[in-house]
Design goal:
Layout: E1 2-6, H1 17-21, H2 25-31, E2 40-44, E3 47-50, E4 55-58, H3 64-77, H4 85-101, H5 103-120, H6 124-127, H7 131-141, H8 145-159, H9 165-168
Antiparallel strand pairs: 1-2, 2-3, 3-4
Biased composition (Polar residues): 1-14
Region (Disordered): 1-20
Protein name: Twin-arginine translocation pathway signal
Length: 191
């Protein structure tokens, strides 16, 4: 079974009825290059696939729908529009490994995602196209152990990725390169 999540925010005012209700697999195939595939995640079997940017994430302990929701949750907790989804996927991948080692951890994450989906109703958390709507739901659960666990793990999971550092303008540690003083710390060209 393949599930396609259209992550573009679409309102009821959108003229295209197919976009108002979400896109089916058939819609994606019919539209070809006209659909914005940059906003679609495909869940197939135990994998999450992002077709435009050619990355995938295989799950072994958590459901793929849970992992897809965790990716969106990570993006909502630490929003950076210029950071691709693949870095968020890498940041949430350790939750899948921890779920295999600790049944309590797995239950907490699966139950937390189920609770999020129930709070939203039809379409679940991934079905909410507007960031403000998702943030309103997150504010209601921000004191729960589930939210605090995910938020706490994302700090290191996202920001410790060396591939992300240049996207923030951070060059990494400086000690091995002679320290900051020898690398332009005292260059004051504007004075």
């Amino acid at each position: 079974m393949v599930t396609i999540f259209n992550r573009n925010p679409v309102s009821q005012d959108t003229p295209d009825p197919a976009l108002r209700k979400g896109m089916s697999r058939r819609d994606v195939l019919k539209r070809g290059g006209t659909a914005s595939l940059g906003a679609i995640l495909i869940i197939s079997g135990s994998s999450i696939i992002h077709p435009q940017f050619a990355w995938g994430l295989e799950t072994s302990n958590l459901k793929p729908e849970t992992m897809a929701t965790l990716i969106q949750l990570a993006r909502d907790i630490y929003p950076h529009d210029h950071i691709p989804d693949r870095f968020y996927a890498i940041a949430v991948k350790p939750y899948d490994a921890k779920a295999g080692e600790d049944p309590k951890q797995k239950k907490m994450i699966e139950d937390g995602i189920t609770d999020l989906d129930k709070r939203v109703g039809k379409g679940g958390y991934l079905g909410l196209g507007w960031e403000d709507d998702r943030l309103a739901i997150l504010r209601k659960i921000e004191d729960t152990p589930f939210f605090q666990t995910v938020r706490g793990g994302l700090v290191t999971g996202l920001y410790n990725q060396e591939e992300v550092w240049p996207l923030f303008g951070y060059e990494g540690e400086s000690f091995s390169k002679g320290g900051y003083i020898a690398r332009g710390f005292s260059d004051i060209e504007w004075l």
